[in-house]
C-alpha cells in the first residue's frame, strides 16, 4: 500500500515528515510530493508551472526525511499534486493521501479555502482515502502531539467504509500530557484558515522574500464552544468528517423548456 504525503506549507515544512512517520508506522510505503513554495489558501485549485508541457518536479530532501521515503518538490498547488499522483505522476496510484501537518488550524466552514483540506478533498473525489491534519499554531512546537493524534485517527479511519468522506483533524499545540483527548466536532460558522498574498510583481516579491501570509479567523472559539474551533481552543483535538462534492437530488429544480 502506498501513502502520498502532501501539504500547502511547502516542501520544507516539518509536518510532512511527521505524517511520513505516521504512514510508515501504519505499514504504508511512502512518497512525499509537496509544493515547492507556500500554497496556503489554495483550496482545491489546479495551478501549476509547466516546462515543455510537463509539470515542474524536482527531487527534494525535507529535514528529517525517513529512510526509504522518496520526496519531490512540485511547482503546483497541493490539489494538483494529489490529482497528478492519482494518475501515476509519482509512481503507483496512492491508496491513501495524508495532507499536512499544517502550520495553523483549518476549522469551520473556512476549510473551503484551505489548500491542506483541498488536497485531501481532491483525493477523496478521486476515490482515494484522505486525511488532513493541522496543528493550531503559526510556528508549532509540539509536532509529537500531532503525530500521536494523526496515528490514532488513521488507525480508525483505515478500518471504516469512509465512502466520500474526508477526515479533517485539528490538534492543539500542547504537550501530549496536556491534550484533553480527541473528539468529533461540527464545523464552526466560519473558523480559521491561512492564505498567501503575493504583491503585484511576483518576481520582484520573490527576490525580496516579502510574500505575506494572512489569517482569516472568526469569533467561534468564544461563541461556539461545541464547534471544532471552540473545542480546539479548549484543548481538544477535533475530528470532522467532510463530504467530497456530490450531487444532491433531494430537492427538485424545475425544468426549463
Automatic annotation (TrEMBL):
Organism annotation: Xylanimonas cellulosilytica (strain DSM 15894 / JCM 12276 / CECT 5975 / KCTC 9989 / LMG 20990 / NBRC 107835 / XIL07)
Single annotated GO MF: metal ion binding
Taxonomy, superkingdom: Bacteria
Keywords, comma-separated and alphabetical: Cytoplasm, Hydrolase, Metal-binding, Nucleotide-binding
Keyword Cell division: no
EC numbers, comma separated: 3.1.3.5
Reaction(s) the record says it catalyses: a ribonucleoside 5'-phosphate + H2O = a ribonucleoside + phosphate
Family to which the UniProt record says this protein belongs: Belongs to the SurE nucleotidase family.
Xref: InterPro entries: SurE, SurE-like_Pase/nucleotidase, SurE-like_sf
Every Survival protein SurE-like phosphatase/nucleotidase domain range: 4-187
Protein name (database record): 5'-nucleotidase
Amino acid at each position: 500500500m502506498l501513502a502520498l504525503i502532501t501539504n500547502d506549507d511547502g516542501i520544507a515544512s516539518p509536518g510532512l515528515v511527521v505524517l511520513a512517520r505516521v504512514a510508515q508506522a501504519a505499514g504504508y510505503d511512502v512518497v512525499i510530493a509537496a509544493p515547492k513554495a507556500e500554497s496556503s489558501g489554495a483550496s482545491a485549485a489546479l495551478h501549476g508551472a509547466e516546462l515543455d508541457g510537463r509539470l515542474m518536479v524536482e527531487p527534494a530532501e525535507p529535514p528529517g526525511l525517513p529512510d526509504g521515503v522518496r520526496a519531490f518538490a512540485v511547482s503546483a498547488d497541493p490539489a494538483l499534486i494529489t490529482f497528478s499522483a492519482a494518475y501515476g505522476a509519482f509512481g503507483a496510484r496512492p491508496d491513501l493521501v495524508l495532507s499536512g501537518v499544517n502550520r495553523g488550524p483549518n476549522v469551520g466552514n473556512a476549510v473551503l479555502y484551505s489548500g491542506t483540506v483541498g488536497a485531501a478533498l481532491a483525493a477523496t473525489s478521486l476515490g482515494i482515502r484522505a486525511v488532513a491534519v493541522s496543528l493550531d499554531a503559526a510556528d508549532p512546537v509540539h509536532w509529537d502531539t500531532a503525530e500521536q493524534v494523526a496515528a490514532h485517527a488513521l488507525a480508525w479511519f483505515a478500518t471504516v467504509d469512509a465512502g466520500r468522506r474526508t477526515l479533517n483533524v485539528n490538534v492543539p499545540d500542547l504537550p501530549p500530557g496536556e491534550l484533553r483527548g480527541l473528539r468529533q466536532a461540527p464545523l464552526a460558522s466560519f473558523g480559521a484558515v491561512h492564505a498567501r498574498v503575493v504583491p503585484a510583481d511576483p518576481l520582484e516579491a520573490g527576490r525580496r522574500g516579502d510574500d505575506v501570509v494572512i489569517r482569516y479567523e472568526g469569533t467561534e472559539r468564544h461563541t461556539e464552544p461545541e464547534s471544532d474551533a471552540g473545542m480546539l481552543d479548549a484543548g481538544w483535538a477535533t475530528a470532522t468528517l467532510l463530504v467530497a462534492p456530490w450531487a444532491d437530488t433531494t430537492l427538485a429544480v424545475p425544468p426549463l423548456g
